[in-house]
Amino acid sequence: MNYHILKKDGLDGFIKKLAGQMKVCAPVAKGHGAFAFEEVSSAAEISLKYIPTILPPKKYFMPPREKMLEFDLNGDKPKDAANLEPEKLALFGVHTCDLAGIQCLNMVFSERPRDYNYLLRKENIFIIGLECNEYCDGNASCALVGNHYPNGGYDLFFTDLGDRFIVHVNTQKGEELAESQGLPKASPADLSALEKARDAKKHVFQNEIGVGPKLLPEIFARGMESKVWQELGKRCVSCGNCTNVCPTCYCFDMSDTINLDMKTGCRTRTWDSCQFETFASVAGGENFREERAHRQRHRYYRKFKYPLDKFYRSFCTGCGRCTRTCMAKISLKDTLKTLAAEYK
Amino acid sequence: MKTTDKTEHTPAGAAGARTKPKVAFFDFASCEGCQLQITNLGETLLDVLGAVDVVEFREAISEKYDGVYDVAIVEGSIGDSHAEERLKKIRERSKVLIAYGACACTGGVNGMKNGFQLDEIRQYVYGKDYKLFDSTPTRPVHEVVKVDYFVNGCPIYPPELIEVLKHALRGLPYTVPDNPVCAECKLNENVCMYERGVACLGPWTKAGCNSWCVNNGNICYGCRGEVKNPARNAAADVISKYNLKPELIAKKFEMYNKCKEGAK
């Protein structure tokens, strides 16, 4: 196991040196209790204690609006070119829930046909995780899905040990950075301090809904006709907030835009949401999920059922963003509890 | 006026091989602020002028034109019979008609007139001789003539007008987004206005403006009109979550949505 140490008073130097090599993005306070990943150049700008950011780090892997290609209709044959030169980027302070989110998206976009835009960006993003030693707030359900501990998906991973961070190295790139930053190796005392911190978390983080995660697939298999979906449907605003802020929602729409010369233009993809009324409507006027209840149900099944069948993994990371952002107070934990109660 | 079947089914820009499409701007009951948005386009205005021939535009040029308009771009709502007649004449002379701005698309702030008895409001505005002044309830343009394209907003969001114009020139349909403003606001990662303790009409208002107001620290006033199927029940949850007074939200709707023309 490869661990290094960074003294807390050395963090500013660490960030500044890193920012000299590449763009560094980290959680920044936006006021009113909200945070966002933004570019930083010093440690003072970073909020080390933060609740999940408004948008998850997926925005760097698949930007909300992304130009896919440029086209030119001049000449005999139309021409197009898809040129992507992704920027080198380091994400600092990514919580374990969001690391899990990135792992989920990696699986989705690595499937054939591969999504080259996503994969190219991913290749150029250096990820530094940050452990939560306590809950961000009561909306999280990370312990339910086992994301309160790190499960890979990073280059370096920081755990707060009071006056210092213990830094786990997970990749060759991570090792090179730790060495170039001159981080000393962790001592056996540091490692036992880490073990102690992890032990303490066992008492802090408890299954948030009181139902074993192994039961969830069965609960969902039987929950298709549950009354809870009608309840959610009555309240849902269909604003798409829950999916836009979800670290594992990846649906998008594509559109072509022509310039005023009427000859050149570009193709753009934009995040879409299954909660929008137009999402499942097709030519001829049919809408496969016309009711809000069906759209909400679909969202939950896309987290707790379908990806388990396909990827053997929950696509809910437990970050709690959907609950936090819902205008109509739709709570993921409450929905799961209601479903579980009906199952019994 | 030579309107043959052929020209009727041809995109407004098809004549552009030799001559540029003739575009005219008109205004009815409005503040003409949407025209001002066009004059404020900056460099993009040069691109627009490269693609079209502006033949009438009261706020910027004095010329008039007596031929057929390839595209008529109409601002303002219809509030008296003179306006109705004039609009119908413009429609007859136009291959494509674009309604732009809240007044033209939904009635806009002029819709507040419809919350009063007509004679009561006429008296208030024109005094004792109010009967000499013709006045009808506020109507958006499409309630008087056929509208081919809508550009909502008070004022219009300039990039959307450019998009619609390009669609018109190519003869393609343009779909006004029917998602709430929140959908775009979230992509812009704004701190929700409700989190700031302020009521905002974003959850019920049509997107398409790229959450322009919230990006600049203001609330959504609902100027683009309601989405087709607004969440009626949600207001109670929103109000209780953020501890707001119900009137706060209801009152805000009155400014732009008095004509109740949500569906387009």
Please give a structural write-up.
Chain A has 13 helices and 11 strands. Chain A has helices at residues 11-21, 58-61, 96-110, 116-123, 172-180, 188-204, 216-221, 228-235, 241-244, 292-304, 306-311, 321-325, 332-343, and strands at residues 3-7, 23-31, 34-40, 65-72, 79-81, 89-94, 125-130, 156-160, 164-169, 252-258, 264-271. In chain A, α8 crosses α10. Chain B has 264 residues and is of the alpha/beta class. Chain B contains 11 helices and 5 strands; from the N terminus they run αβααββαβααβααααα. Chain B has a 5-stranded parallel beta sheet, sandwiched between helices. In chain B, α4 (81-92) links the parallel β3 and β4 (94-100). Classes of the chains: A alpha/beta (344), B alpha/beta (264). At the A-B interface, loops of A face α3, α7, α8 and α10 of B.
Structural features:
heterodimer; A: 344 residues; alpha/beta; seven-stranded mixed β-sheet; 13 helices; globular; B: 264 residues; Rossmann fold; 11 helices; 34% helix
List the helices and strands and how they pair.
The complex is a heterodimer of chains A (344) and B (264).
Chain A lengths: L2 E5 L3 H11 L1 E9 L2 E7 L17 H4 L3 E8 L6 E3 L7 E6 L1 H15 L5 H8 L1 E6 L25 E5 L3 E6 L2 H9 L7 H17 L11 H6 L6 H8 L5 H4 L7 E7 L5 E8 L20 H13 L1 H6 L9 H5 L6 H12 L1
Parallel strand pairs in A: 2-6, 6-7, 7-8
Antiparallel strand pairs in A: 1-9, 2-3, 4-5, 4-11, 8-9, 10-11
Helix pairs in contact in A: 8-10
Chain B lengths: L4 H4 L13 E6 L5 H7 L3 H9 L1 E5 L11 E7 L5 H12 L1 E7 L1 H5 L11 H9 L22 E3 L6 H13 L11 H6 L24 H4 L18 H9 L3 H12 L7
Parallel strand pairs in B: 1-2, 1-3, 3-4, 4-5
